[in-house]
Amino acid sequence: MIRRNPNGDRPQIHPDAYVDNTAIICGKVIIEQNVFVGPYAVIRADETNEEGDMDPIIIRANSNIQDGVVIHSKAGGLVEIGESTSIAHRSIIHGPCKIGSRVFIGFNSVVFNCEIGDGCAVRHNAVVDGCDLPPGFYVPSTMQLGPESNLDDVPRVQASVSEFSESVVSANIELVKGYKALSNEF
């Protein structure tokens, strides 16, 4: 479902993106080319700051927002997801936050109030809350990072993880093409 927010902002969705019919895209959302938005995802830009303004939620080209993901922002803060980034099933991305390009966010992970640099991987059931990650960091499954976390304890991404992330992006770009072709049958 594509709908306006109470301010009247309507999502801008590139014609070469695919948004599943069960997904909800609301308000000041920008979805670029070759983005896949899976079933039951919710991307909602509808809260405003004290001045009544809001920044958009931006999903850059070739990224994928998988089944059941929720993306929202507190008080109209910016959420930006870089190019060729995967947000895996049932993750929560809550702004304000910025996620770089070629990032993998694993199943059921929570990302809030932070910046995640290019090429990072946040594995399944991990939490990054108020802790900025420079490029190339690897957050293992179930790790929790907060404002007081010591990044010296966080490993760096290995080549095999980057290759896996790239394969997920490629698979989802193929899904965009496949589902777009199927939609022409009805």
UniProtKB/TrEMBL annotation:
Belongs to the gamma-class carbonic anhydrase family. InterPro entries: CA_gamma_LbH (IPR047223), Gamma-CA (IPR052265), Hexapep (IPR001451), Trimer_LpxA-like_sf (IPR011004). PANTHER family: CARBON DIOXIDE CONCENTRATING MECHANISM PROTEIN CCMM (PTHR43360), CARBOXYSOME ASSEMBLY PROTEIN CCMM (PTHR43360:SF1). Pfam families: Hexapep. Transmembrane segments: none annotated. It comes from the Bacteria. This is Carbonate dehydratase.
